[in-house]
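Reviewer 2 asked us to include a model.

Predict the structure of this chain.
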Amino acid sequence: MPLDSDLFRSVLGRFASGVTVITTRDAGGRDFGMTVSAFSSLSLDPPLVMFCVDRSASMLGALGESAWIAVNILSASQEALSRRFSNLDAESRFDGIGFSRGRSGAPILDEVLAHMECEVVRRLDGGDHVIFVGKVHNAESRDERPLLYYRGGYAQLER
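Predicted model (structure tokens):
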């Protein structure tokens, strides 16, 4: 018996996740970024992370050709940044926001909770998504609260 897609979505919504913005630079020097909540650590040795991108995402082409990406983990004060990278036209997402270049050239957003620069080492079929595996080469973090996504909306960790 097939699982009802609305039920599946509702159950998955009960899993709170952090919010990231994945960024990259294509061969032409254009910056791309998108909000991704389907992100996870994969391995400590070697240091690997993974994230999933919908096949219909505007950034999929840039990710398909990029060797390097940055994972920007958002802080609780960056909900507007998450919305910007999930809603605005891909061409204007970087307009007027602060960022610097990592060692790889990928954009690192200002004042994020943490960031990692990753070499894309594998792309895998994941149904209606593509699974990207990145080897972490550089990482930094700050002491802030994380931005969370839960049941279709943003939440903050209270401690």
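The mean pLDDT is 91. Helices lie at 5-12, 60-65, 79-87. We have added this to the supplementary material.
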